[in-house]
Amino acid sequence: MVQYLNNNNNFNSGFAAFMAAKNEQPRKTRFGTFLWWTFLFLVAWWIVGLFMGPAPQNNAPAPAESIVTVDVSKVPTVKMESDDIAFNVRGLRISKIDLKNFARNSHDDAPITQIDGDGFIEIGLTPAGTTAPIATTIWTKSGDNMVWRNADGVEFTRNVSADGYLIRVTDTIKNNSKRDFTFAPYARVLRAADDNSSAGVYTGAIAYVNNDIEHNDWRDIDKKSYAYTTTNGFVGFADQYWETIANIDSPDQTMHMKKQGDLYDASAAAAPISVAAGKTQTITTNVFSGPRDATVLKNANATINGIVESMDYGWFWFLARPMLWAINAIHGFVMNYGLAIIIFTILIRILMWPLTRKSYTSMLAMQKMQPELQRVQKLYANDKQRMQMEMMRVYQTHKTSPMSGCLPMLIQIPIFFALYKALLISVQMRNAHFLWISDLATMDPYFILPILMGATMWLQQYLQSNKSGSDDPNSIAAQTAKTMKWMPILFTIMFAWMPAGLVLYWTVSNIFGIGQMIWLKHKSK
After folding, report:
1. Number of C-beta neighbours around residue 46 at 10 A
2. Which residue has the higher pLDDT, 402 or 96?
3. Average per-residue pLDDT in the chain?
4. Domains in the chain with CATH codes
């Protein structure tokens, strides 16, 4: 992509001169041109932020509700686990969910913990006309179940099981009384904010409402509460790599997202369920706590419908998905994500070769026609319309145009942003080592890759520069060429804090492009 963005020749030779003749642009100072290009890049970066950020919401705020601090220390804690997670069950509450397959970081092998500290997941029932278990209720152990009976003779049996990253809570209500009662199921997820939120990846509260994903980040919830009504769905929180959500298998739900003290609360309350005298009702609530991985979420989707849509691939999802799949597939052979990105980059450049070759060929043709273009510019300096016509005739004679190199650049833009998103959300890339880099999903700690990227970008500019450019140092083409020399520095600074995997892609792409350019120049001679 870089070779098109910083193509001096396109500006020196044809495009700038063509546009100058067409629009009769006044000449600009060197400093003014630099400010103009800087402004363009800042605007582009702002637009990227809009693309990557969550869409604003406009929902009715939920009524204020305070958390009642209760002492659950007397409630026995039961430790449970599956092949993938381990967690604590304390009455209605589930907490300290350890993801056994993921270490905290490259220096700490302890598992990542979800819903820790004061956070918890509470799954319960709101009764009408009777009582139901609360957070401080002490249940009676009965095999794999927990049992509690109220004063009216209603018996509650709870079974908690785990499979993979799914926790299933099954509540059986047996009404042994002679009266009918109703119980409204609820589930709430309380946790602290994510202090390590990554730019470009949505983090915060998440809900699946009427077959659509709703997002509200931490700052949104700081300002106001949100409420949704839906026939079914789930609610919870998402981080860059993980998510924890609760799904009540019951219709007509109201979901709330709000801040409670120092914690954030995402809850769902379903419509009341009637339990007639002498009858039994069963309510199932599913909890997912695990990685935001396409394969894992696809398996969980069979139990919690819509969870697969919680993956945030961005605007260019149609490119990000196959890119992520391709990188993971290559990793299966080379067993290193750094090498996988390098191979993937080379494959992309090979696929782009027909367009790249056309662009390079056009660039070389533009360089050869420079003397003729300069002659036209000097000859018709006082007749802009005639200059434009003569320049168009020159382009037609050489079968090229100043816009011939734009298509490869336009194609590379969505590829770049899609790969940026894919690398940010890839949990496999987390803690992935490559040479001196301990985590390809974070910035290069020594800034080696950004410097290499800037150096290769400068070398591309040098190879693409037209040594027989205009002799007028104040011409628009000359001023633009001088401004473009700042691009390697600007890009180096901009990429210094980007994921190392993305900078690796760009650097390898530059190196491969340099090789292609040298080969084409040699062939043209």
Report:
1. 9
2. 96
3. 78
4. 2-7+317-360+406-524 (no CATH), 82-305 (2.70.98.90)
